[in-house]
Amino acid sequence: MQKNRSYAGNISLFYAAVVILTVAFFIMLELPGLQPRSIVSMLAMLSAESVFFGFTVYRLRTPKSNRSPSPVQTGGAWITAAYAAAVLIAAALLDWGLQLQTPAYAAVQVTLLLVSAALLAVTGIYSRKAAAQEQRTNDATRAHTEHQAELKDIRELAGSWRHPGAQWLAELIAGLEEQFRYSDPHSRPDLYDTEEMLTRQISLLHDQVALLLTLRDPGSGWEGAAGELADNIAGTLLLRNRQLAALK
Predict the structure, then answer these.
(1) Which of 43, 48, 57, 131 is nearest to 86 (CA)?
(2) Transmembrane residues, as ranges (predicted)?
(3) Residue 30, pLDDT above cutoff 70
(4) Do 162 and 85 reside in the same domain of the chain?
(5) Which of 28, 41, 59, 189 has the fewest Cβ atoms within 10 angstroms?
(6) Do the domain assignments include residue 36?
(7) End-to-end distance of the chain based on CA atoms, in angstroms?
């Protein structure tokens, strides 16, 4: 991250130098005074340079992953490059070549700017939606792993219970672990509510087992309560697996 900030600072200096050179170029080219059409070309080039600079800084500040750049980032780069090329081509053909009337030439450059801005905006919106979707998918998948880890903790906790029913309780939880082990670990954002229900149910089971360890005499109904919680978890897991299969 610190290295990216250093790069961004260097690019900012480079951008400032390019802007100064661009303005100086047009002033020297049109001495003793700038023509309106040349002012349009200068502003268009400054706009293209600003867009390129902004996209470069955005890429540097975007957290890197181990994967190659996403299609959205690649598309943004192509749009930025295409806009810069279009500005240069329009300036060369319509300003310096055909010497188009200033209003018409300005309309062309403004159109290029608006179209590029619209495409970048659409790309940015799609990028945010794709990132949010990916995050929800990762969260849902991570929840399944966390469920397995918590069940393991509950089983070990049950195994440490100094009570004749400790083995039965540990085997009950081990059975749930087995069902989770053979379930698809790759979840979907559409299953968020179901994964959340599993989280609550497993947390209730954890609390139940922790409570049993604090009681001298848990009474005669603790097996039924623990079995009911385990059945609820198994039922929700089965629902999750069916929902996941239906989405494939």
Answers:
(1) 48
(2) 7-27, 39-58, 78-98, 104-126
(3) no
(4) no
(5) 28
(6) yes
(7) 38
Q: Is the pTM of this model over 0.90?
A: no
Tell me how far apart the alpha carbons of residues 143 and 15 are, in angstroms, rounded to a whole number.
Answer: 45
Name the nearest CA neighbour of 203 among 141, 143, 244: 143
Residues 120-138: pLDDT tens digits? 888 888 877 877 777 777 7
- Residues 140, 63: Cα–Cα separation, whole Å: 21
Structure tokens, 97: 């070549």
Helical spans, DSSP H, in 91-181: 102-159, 166-181
Is 144 part of a structural domain of the chain?
Answer: yes
**Tell me: the pLDDT tens digits for 106-119?**
999 999 999 988 98
Amino acid identity, residue 236? T
Residue 40 contacts residue 104 (beta carbons within 8 Å): no
Residue 64: per-residue pLDDT: 60
From 49, 83, 100, the end of a domain falls on 100
Domain span at residue 41 reads 2-100
131 within some domain:
no
